[in-house]
Design a protein that fits this description.
The complex is a heterodimer. By secondary structure, chain A is an alpha+beta fold. Helices cover 14% and strands 32% of the residues of chain A. Chain A has a 6-stranded antiparallel beta sheet. In chain A, a hairpin with a 6-residue loop joins strand 4 and strand 5. Chain B is an alpha/beta fold. In chain B, a hairpin with a 2-residue loop joins strand 2 and strand 3. The longest helix of chain B has 43 residues. Classes of the chains: A alpha+beta, B alpha/beta. The interface between A and B is large, with 50 and 65 residues. Strand 6 of chain A pairs antiparallel with strand 9 of chain B, so a sheet runs across the interface.
Chain lengths: 99, 666
């Protein structure tokens, strides 16, 4: 297990406020490859869906690292220290910005 | 104000997997199942402990990610917190997921119940490079934050003391809450004005207003009902702020960020934990399935490789030996009483006893899988295959273990939180033919089908699986029409299994089984004994056989003779009884074997029909008892039994008639 020397602190928005202006390529979580990071831009869906996502850490500005994305089927991401598995449909509804 | 007689109540709250149950057991010395994945405690536990001479009531609430009305657990927690209003809360946080765990804390603040934060697993977090300063966090939040040293009690006592102090000095409770946007605050103030006369007690106005703004389904429905015509104003106000919920959630995380800014340091992402490495394989669509099959093969081998011989040993040296002693012990007692004790009583107890080795080993294995964290990966990997049947990924394990024995498999359905998926799993699992049923096919197939025994065996085994899929799809359509339960599942960190926790869970499940199934099995055993003994003391002339003879007129349709009918009925107690009953009724003895006896009087068509019925037949009473224990519904259990009975009879009859039509084996 490697420990890098550069430590970071949790910033709710990671220093960047996502807005329509700096949206280079609105992609969904399913477009992110394993090892890459995305910042959540928007959540498409009804209240209950968004509420569930919020409880798991998915909110505008949240940093999501993709762990597993085989191209079809569910994906696994790391968010706020936990691993979360998402169905593909659910993942397509999470819009992210790539760093 | 609480009366003097009511004990001080502390509730344990927190997101799933933060270790609430550990704290509960530490304080109460309880024997709750401690499990390493979300959704396990789905009702709340109440216990007591003594603190500085006083008795404190402790309530362990199920883990919930937030207080929306999305799940049964969340609604339960909300209801409990608002209606029962504990004196204080101990909110358990996991150092590794601290920021996310604080989301629930943000929600709890609006309920205005004093709380103390307990941070768990700081040692584990340190190894991942996560450094937390509890005092700094406490200063930012203006709430006591106590680190917990796992396995030892120190932090817990401190936390309880802090909780009691905070509750007794309410003016000291001045936490630092999330900021509310000015425009939202305006809306909340207006809402407060509109709703005040209508808010049912004891719900706090502020909380209701906030939930309305968030668009909480339950609160909205309740208030709409309460307010009648007045609801219109509220409704149009809310419509103008339709997207408030996104902002409210983001606002909570902003608050969290401010609170932890000085208190929590994380390593730059790129640290690979063991969990990451293992999950590369475990969650891989192909490798994941393969590794799951390997794990299961291992577990299966362990459970049944040791369990079945143990079962046989117990059967021979405990049960049969005891039964053999009965004439010696009860020499003077009347014949029927001796038979009752030997067969009804000892037989019934024996059924329960001989199931124990398999149950213990199975629950040990499952406990290991759960505690290590692997179970969540197994569920994840199988989920896509289970959904078309109305099942969850988690259903796969109970289902597949049904091959060995349905009883533990049905009980294992507890791991599924979603009630409908759990019910469907409970009802589908017993379709999987267990070893004893399979062995009947294996023994009788050669008699009826000769060279083609293997082929026919395969066909017969696939019958119940076919119905499993068929009924699964039907139930999926009927019960879950249009429902789409969003698939969002946390995969907890892998951890070395904890022997104590596992033993506790095994103990709990065995006790549940004995309590639930034990009595039923005994009663049915004695009942069946009575039917097969009276009036003449011999099974051939008994009421049971007379019952069998009632079906004689139907034998033209079903292909069964009375001996087979009786054998099926006796299989209700244990599937193993089928063969032994047939032996007795066909007069198997020194001069002829079962093969000879059956081949002499029965046609292959009859045999096929019988074997089909047997493998589809109502499951054994232990399984039915387990179904009842898990569904808690006589009605559902009964409906299921009738369904299995009809399926077996109709399919058997159809097969027999088809054979006659095709002039095969008649």
């Amino acid at each position: 297990m490697k420990l890098l020397h550069h430590h970071q602190r949790f910033h709710g928005h990671h220093g960047i406020k996502p807005s329509p202006e700096n949206q280079d390529c609105p992609a969904s979580l399913t477009n992110i490859n394993p090892g890459q990071t995305g910042i959540v831009n928007h959540l498409h869906g009804g209240r209950e869906f968004v509420d569930r996502l919020a409880g798991m850490g998915f909110t505008i500005g949240a940093q999501v690292i993709v762990i597993s994305n085989p191209g079809h089927g569910p994906i696994v991401v790391s968010i706020l220290g936990a691993h979360v598995a998402l169905g593909r449909q659910e993942a397509t509804r999470i819009q992210v910005m790539t760093e | 104000m609480k009366g003097k007689n009511q004990p001080f109540t502390i509730a344990l709250a927190g997101q799933p997997n933060t270790g609430k149950s550990t704290v509960y057991n530490l304080l109460t010395g309880g024997t709750q199942y401690v499990s390493n994945w979300p959704g396990k405690t789905s009702n709340y536990q109440v216990g007591h402990f003594k603190f500085q001479g006083e008795t404190i009531q402790l309530v362990d609430l199920p883990g919930v990610y937030s207080l929306t009305s999305g799940s049964v657990e969340e609604e339960l927690v909300r209801k409990y917190l608002i209606e029962n209003r504990p004196d204080a809360l101990l909110v358990i946080l996991d150092a590794v997921t601290l920021e996310r765990n604080l989301y629930l804390v943000a929600e709890l603040l609006s309920l205005e119940i004093p709380f103390v934060l307990v941070v768990n697993r700081m040692d584990l977090a340190e190894t991942q490079g996560i450094h937390i300063e509890p005092e700094v966090l406490s200063a930012a939040l203006r709430v006591p934050v106590v680190p917990l040293v796992a396995l030892r009690g120190d932090g817990v006592q401190q936390a309880v003391a802090a909780a009691i102090h905070t509750a007794r000095h309410p003016s000291d409770w001045q936490p630092n809450p999330p900021l509310i946007r000015p425009d939202h605050q305006q809306v909340l103030d207006q809402l407060d004005e509109f709703i005040r006369p209508f808010v049912p007690s004891p719900y706090p106005y502020k909380w209701i207003a906030l939930k309305l703004l968030e668009g909480d389904r339950l609160v909205t429905e309740t208030m709409r009902e309460q307010m009648g015509e007045e609801w219109e104003r509220v409704h149009s106000l809310l419509l103008q702020h339709d997207d408030a919920f996104l902002a409210v959630a983001a606002g909570r995380y902003d608050w969290i960020a401010r609170m932890v800014r000085a208190a929590v340091v994380r390593p730059r992402s790129g640290v690979l934990t063991i969990t990451d490495r293992l999950d590369h394989v475990a969650t891989h669509p192909i490798l994941g399935v393969l590794s799951l099959l390997a794990v299961m093969a291992g577990l299966f081998g362990f459970t049944f490789g040791i369990g079945i011989p143990l079962q046989g040993w117990l059967e021979k040296y405990a049960v049969q030996a005891a039964a053999a002693q009965v004439p010696a012990w009860m020499g003077s007692a009347p014949g029927w009483l001796q038979s009752l004790v030997a067969h009804g009583l000892i037989g019934g107890v024996g059924t329960v006893l001989t199931l124990l080795p398999i149950l213990v080993l199975f629950f040990l294995g499952m406990g290991l899988l759960e505690d290590s964290g692997y179970m969540a990966r197994a569920a994840f990997v199988m989920d896509r295959y289970m959904h078309p049947l109305g099942l969850h990924g988690k259903s796969f394990l109970p289902l597949s273990f049904g091959v060995g024995c349905n009883v533990p498999a049905v009980m294992e359905s507890r791991i599924i939180d979603e009630p409908k998926a759990r019910l469907i799993t409970i009802l589908l699992t017993p379709f999987v033919p267990c070893f004893p049923r399979l062995s009947v096919v294996v023994v009788l197939a050669p008699i009826f089908f000769g060279q083609n025994a293997f082929l026919f065996s395969l066909l017969l085994v696939s019958l119940p699986l076919l119905f499993l899929v068929l009924y699964g799809k039907i139930m999926h359509e009927v019960f879950q029409k249009g429902e789409h339960n969003a698939f969002i599942m946390e995969l907890p960190l892998y951890q070395p299994p904890r022997p104590k926790a596992i033993f506790r869970s095994v103990q709990g499940r065995i006790v549940d089984f004995l309590k639930g199934a034990g009595t039923i099995i005994l009663v049915v055993s004695i009942g069946l004994w009575a039917l097969s003994y009276f009036p003449g003391g011999e099974i051939k002339t008994s009421y049971l056989s007379r019952l069998g003879h009632w079906f004689d007129p139907l034998s033209g349709i079903t292909g069964l003779d009375w001996q087979m009918a009786v054998a099926l009925v006796t299989s209700l107690l244990r599937s193993e009884n089928t063969l032994s009953t047939l032996s007795v009724l066909y007069g198997v003895g020194a001069d002829r074997t079962l093969s000879q006896a059956m081949a002499a009087t029965l046609t292959p068509a009859s045999g096929l029909a019988f074997l089909a019925m047997q493998i589809l037949f109502v499951p054994c009473i232990a399984t039915i008892a387990a179904i009842f224990t898990e569904t808690r519904s006589w009605f559902r259990t009964l409906v299921y039994v009738v369904l299995r009975l009809l399926t077996a009879l109709v399919v058997g009859a159809l097969i027999y008639q088809a054979c006659r039509l095709l002039q095969w084996g008649v």
